[in-house]
Write a structure and sequence with these properties.
The chain has 86 residues and is of the alpha+beta class. The chain has one domain. It is 27% helix and 40% strand. The protein is built from one helix and five strands; from the N terminus they run E-E-E-E-E-H. The chain has a five-stranded antiparallel sheet with strand order 1-2-3-4-5, with helices on one face. It is elongated and about 40 Å long. It starts with a strand and ends with a helix. 24% of the residues are buried. The mean pLDDT is 95.
């Protein structure tokens, strides 16, 4: 299950839309030192949160780590959605 991240803002906040099979399935945002992931879009269910070192953007050494964790949480949410709709 390949989740594509599209950066929609580079800093203050650093944010991304997550897409799967052409549809939006997540919203990722880092602002004031708080990183959150909501599915399927902003205002949806919070599926992951963390407090990285970066404030309005990730530090160079942490971006990959947190984006991987975000994708994992989105995949888990998607799998639960599929199960709930069967």
């Amino acid at each position: 299950m390949k989740i594509e991240l599209i950066q929609t803002c580079g800093a203050c906040p650093e944010q991304y839309d997550a897409r799967y099979n052409g549809r939006t399935v997540g919203y990722l945002r880092l602002r004031h030192g708080f990183f959150s992931v909501e599915c399927p879009y902003v205002g949806g269910e919070e599926v992951y949160c963390a407090e990285p070192d970066g404030d309005g953007l990730f530090e160079y050494y942490e971006r990959s780590k947190y984006l991987k964790k975000a994708k994992k949480a989105i995949r888990k949410w998607l799998c639960a959605e599929v199960e709930n709709n069967d």
